[in-house]
Amino acid sequence: NAQRGSDELLEKHFAGPRAALRPVYDRLIGALSALGDDVTVGVRDSYVAFARRKQFAVFKSRARPVQAELGLRLPDVAASPRLAPAGKSFGSESATHVVVLTLPEDIDHEVLEWLRRAYEDVG
Fold it and tell me: Cα separation of 123 and 116, whole Å?
């Protein structure tokens, strides 16, 4: 079953200390669902990709320190203290910026707006 394999792969993103990041991911999924029903979720070994016609966001869970990194495709948005440029070390060619998330509350109005812009830009 492909879905079961995908579910098992997703659970690896939340193994050990990264289990604390599952509520962050769940809130992100809720926010993406509110944007539209055309978002595809691609679970990979080291990240989860979100796309429409093109990839617009990437979720990575980290163990040290325990944090999630949300890469966003925002080519026309300036960096800020919270929205850092995505360097080559982030590992996603589509992401131009990265925001660090540690709690579900970190997905606030500002992050939701960035997510909406990234989603709309690839529509």
Answer: 11
Do residues 72 and 115 touch, judged by C-beta distance below 8 A?
yes
What pLDDT digit, counting tens, does each position of 63-122 carry? 999 999 999 999 999 999 999 999 888 887 889 999 999 999 999 999 999 999 999 999
Q: Which helix (H) or strand (E) holds 55?
A: strand 55-62
Q: If you count them, how many residues does the chain have?
A: 123
Q: Residue 91: which residues within 8 A CB-CB, separation 6 or more?
A: 46, 47, 60
Calculate ∠ Cα 1-20-46, nearest 5°: 50
Q: Which helix (H) or strand (E) holds 43?
A: strand 40-43
For tokens 């925002």, the residue is 74
CB 10 within 8 A of CB 43: yes
Domain coordinates in residue numbering, the chain: 2-121
What's this model's pTM, rounded to 2 decimal places?
0.92
Paired tokens of 20: 């604390």
Structural contact between residues 85 and 53, judged by C-beta atoms closer than 8 angstroms: no
